[in-house]
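ok new one. same drill as before - structure tokens go in, u give me an amino acid for every spot. 164 of them this time. try not to just spam alanines like last time pls lmao
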């Protein structure tokens, strides 16, 4: 899935590869790591095992990605708060201990989804521009450019659709 967004007068194209953490996709995910600028590790707040598996995914990211990759931890399904197996504090604590950003979302009702992608993109741009993230922009397809004028920005904005 891919989507164009506008952040800080810049057009950003986000590409998302979702393997749902399935072992069958493990070999494929390794090819994604090489040139990734950001990883979003998602667990199900109603499923303790999915949270425990985050350690493995995090270690794999750290082993296979650039040392400057930006990693976000997401607890999904916060619409099922009454079935929660992992507290928000537990998720936050894990994120803090591992120097990750943290969000809780609901893919079902869209809660915090836009904020997640907008904030992660904005943070990544800041890290790249400040030099804190020394990724090879040419090899991973990141292109950060300002809009030359208002008409281009409005044209770009008009192309938005309901897809994330």
């Amino acid at each position: 899935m891919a989507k164009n967004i506008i952040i800080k007068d810049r057009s950003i194209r986000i590409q998302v590869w979702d393997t749902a953490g399935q072992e069958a996709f493990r070999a494929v995910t390794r090819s994604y790591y090489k040139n990734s600028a950001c990883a979003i590790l998602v667990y199900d707040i109603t499923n303790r095992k999915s949270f425990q598996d985050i350690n493995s995914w995090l270690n794999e990211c750290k082993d296979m990605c650039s040392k400057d990759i930006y990693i976000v931890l997401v607890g999904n399904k916060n619409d099922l708060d009454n079935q929660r197996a992992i507290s928000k504090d537990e998720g936050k604590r894990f994120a803090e201990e591992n120097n990750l950003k943290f969000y809780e979302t609901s893919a079902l009702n869209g809660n915090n989804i836009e904020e997640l992608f907008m904030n992660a993109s904005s943070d990544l741009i800041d890290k790249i521009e400040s030099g804190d993230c020394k990724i090879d922009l040419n090899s991973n397809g990141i292109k950060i450019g300002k809009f030359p004028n208002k008409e281009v920005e409005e044209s770009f904005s008009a192309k938005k659709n309901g897809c994330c």
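Residues 2-151 form a domain with the Rossmann fold fold (CATH 3.40.50.300). and btw The beta strands are 2-7, 10-15, 38-44, 70-76, 101-104, 145-146.
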